[in-house]
Prior knowledge:
This protein is an alpha/beta fold. The protein contains twelve helices and 23 strands.
Amino acid sequence: MELTYRRKNIYEEADEAQLSRIEAFAQRYKDFLNYAKTERDAVRLSVAMAERAGYKPYAFGDPLSAGDKRYYNNRGKNLFLFTVGEDDIEKTGIRILAAHIDSPRIDLRPVPLYEKAGGAFFKTHYYGGLKKYQWTAIPLALHGVVTLFDGTVKEIVVGEEASDPVFYISDLLPHLAQKQNERKLSVGIEGEELNIWVGGMPAKKAKKKSEEDDEKGTKDGVKEGVLRILRRKYGIREEDFLTAELTAVPAMPARDVGFDGAYIAAYGHDDKVCAFPALMAQLEYEGKGTTMTVLADKEEIGSEGVTGMQCSLFTDLLDEICAARGKNVRAVRAASECLSADVTSAYDPTFSDAFEKNNAAVCSCGVALMKYTGARGKSGASDASAEFMGKIAARLNAAGVIWQTSELGKVDLGGGGTVAKYIASKNIDTLDVGTPVISMHSPYELISKGDLHHTFLAFRAFLQ
């Protein structure tokens, strides 16, 4: 018997058939990522996938029977999928996977458009914890919706097709950056400097009809030109930005990384690298148990609001399932289990001083189990019990899943949170389980294809 612990490397352990499955799953994931760059995109695509898998929409009060597959679309930004099992959920509970589908990004302000020095720009407000300087000098796409005063909703996606224009946040050239270089890295680019370039051609002035007519022009000709394009292509005016929800995301597709293609670089791994495997595990589930997968919004800003994990909708749906099955919801919650499906930071040898290597996740060494997250003295963590940690580990071992444990950096360097504590507060055993990520919260993160696939295998084993 081996007495020492050693991480397993997925690629060393995998045979040709397993490598083929890893690659096939990675390709499906890249297709998902390239479409689902915002939570709205992710919900729209996930609903389509769920309906193809036999799921039907659920409304409060609908009868539920064993074998039902249902989904609840919460305002187009948060999705619940569940199966109704034949089991006695007061004894077996509900197996829950909870991932989030929002990612750090650049949002437009309610009054965004202005002209200065011959250019038209959008003012922005960044969303989530990001390094602002990383968002300059890269191609950006615009995603979101504009709600007109008559109730019409216009969906906007610009910058993803090869024929589309992209958008851009400028940085200062090195030759003139002496003062900028003296700033701390955290304020190398300030929030008010994240202005998006959106136009540069002044609108043509109208021709005179007669000598008495004045030429029709505007003071802000470039802004006017942009507004005319928006009116012509999308039917929107400047005042419609007041009721819009538009965001800038990297206009870069997911790409394989390395000569061997072992990694994937993309925008939005945090947390779609867990959301997609959770969705696939849910859609492929054919057992007799009761399961639920949550694709949540607003995790990056504290899980707030009506589409975040702190909303009562989660417990409302549990109440509805229990009422339809004639079960005591308190007993069901006490018997239920949840994997908070969220990423962790992977050990980066370039920045080794940030990690305690023995307790950091390593790329290609499997899905990461995080007993606790939080900051410094575990502040903000749910801190799963040893018993629940052991129970999950045993299931993964039985299913042949390669896994490791993880902490988010050295103790006093910071930390981070997940949705785990909000679910654990409902008396549901919860453990953070997810994929290690390099360059987390950057516009272009990195993950291992092997870790991605074993995240899926872990979620599938948990639901079974």
